[in-house]
Amino acid sequence: MIDLFHTIRSKIKTGARISDEETLALFESRDLLAIGELAALANRKINGEKVYFNVNRHINYTNICVNRCTFCAFSKGVEDEGCYTLALNDILEKVAEANAAGATEIHIVGGLHPDLPFDFYLEMIAAIRSDNPGLHVKAFTAVELDYFARITNQDVALVISELKEAGLGSMPGGGAEILRREVRDKICPEKISGERWLEIIEQAHRAGLKTNATMLFGHLENYEDRVDHLRRLRDLQDRTSGFQAFIPLAFQPDNTRIPGAKGVGGVDALKTLAISRIYLDNFMHIKGYWVMLGLKIAQVALAFGVNDLDGTVVEEKIGHDAGAATPQALGKEEILDMIRKAGKVPVERDTLYNELKSY
Ligand code: V47
Ligand code: SF4
Q1: What's residue 154's pLDDT?
Q2: Could you tell me if the CB of 319 is within 6 A of ligand 1?
Q3: CA-nearest residue, atom 15 of ligand 1
């Protein structure tokens, strides 16, 4: 083990890559602090002491979804109690509130609605942009893009170009879950394959859209599945450089249909964030999404290779429907406080990581 840490430390220092076998050995190691120290070293080389956040708002336009992934407590059927679809006016009202509160980004995702036409999505983006020309719209996962392509009988490349034309600025990283088929068959059998997710993201990158990448961890997957997931992302990033941040999403078990599901412990969360930082040497940013991690683990994660805390969020449904105990929103002051008390330098960024203000 001492040899393993020694080898990885030299690799980080010289810019060499760690192998899948070494990564698996890190996951199997119990030495959390040694892993964290390596991740902090890797992060410091890329980001120094800076920790990024943004002022944003999440909007989930509908929770009605034809997919019904077993880990998802957010989705509903059209007849289910609690299902909703926001009207364009409601969406624009939420965006106007966010704009007035100083947001620079609107993050929009939703379920795969059986009846909404593709025009609904194009109009939504175009209307948001025309009312608020300064706001960046980060919207739709590869899963939604594939669905739009299917309902319009169009190639996904055309869907991407129409959304770009309407004003789409970039894409979030959802829908990746665990890319390996054996796990997807169990947790999201109706969702697009991991290969299709990667293919659509590659097309988005080639069309000039930046995206993020996520990994939903702590359900039925094992360490090999996580390493396989990381490898495929690192390979794609080598080809496109289109990913901005990697976001490990800690699985929230309440109201889901994963048998025997438990929450993710603090050790596994920190280890997974740290190993991601070490392995994904071609990703600039590792995001600690406080909604799923909890505020305390998200703050401690800043010593384990994490350099981004996402944003103010304002209204979160996906994690909270599954039992996330975090607040709905964070104020800018709260985020600044979390970062400063971790001994780091807070930097407000826009979606594309232009630095707006250092504190
Ligand atoms: O794709 C669903 C996940 C994702 C659960 O790109 C769950 O900046 C935990 O992708 N427990 C959507 N996670 C959220 C997402 C995201 C969030 C913040 C920032 C960005 C970004 C992206 O949430 C889904 C799915 O992987 N999810 N159910 C659950 N029970
Ligand atoms: Fe639908 Fe997304 Fe939930 Fe799966 S994770 S059921 S695709 S909303």
Answers
A1: 98
A2: yes
A3: 174
Query: Mapping DSSP to helix (H, G, I), strand (E, B) and coil, where does residue 54 land?
Result: strand
Q: Which ligand is nearest to the CA of 324?
A: 1
Ligand nearest 219 Cα, by number? 1
187 membership: H or E segment, kind and range: helix 181-187
Q: From the CA of 357, how far away is ligand 2's center (Å)?
A: 35
Please report which ligand is nearest the Cα atom of 351: 1
How far is the centre of ligand 2, averaged over its atoms, from the C-alpha of 282 (Å)? 28
Distance (Å) from CA 67 to ligand 2 centroid:
6
Q: Are 253 and 323 in contact (CB under 8 A)?
A: yes
Q: How far is CA 104 from the centre of its chain?
A: 18
DSSP string, 120-152: HHHHHHHHHHHH-TT-EEEE--HHHHHHHHHHH
| Three-class SS state of 34 | helix
The domain limits of the chain are: 2-358
Mutate to test the pocket of ligand 2, among 67, 113, 258 (most ligand atoms within 8 A of CB): 67
CATH code at 2-358: 3.20.20.70
Instruction: Give 287's DSSP letter.
Output: B
Whether 110 lines ligand 1, by a CB cut-off of 6 Å, is no
DSSP-based three-state secondary structure for 267: helix
**Which of 93, 75, 95 is closest to 83 using CA atoms?**
75
Dist CA 52 CA 50 (whole Å): 6
Nearest residue (CA) to ligand 2, atom 5: 72
Mean pLDDT by 10 residues, the chain (359 residues): 92 98 98 98 98 97 96 97 97 97 97 98 98 97 98 98 98 98 97 98 98 98 98 98 98 94 94 98 98 97 98 93 93 96 98 95
Residues for the chain: how many in total?
A: 359
Atom of ligand 2 nearest to the CA of 72: 3
At residue 33, the 3 state secondary structure works out as helix
23 three-class SS = helix
Q: Is the pTM of this model over 0.85?
A: yes
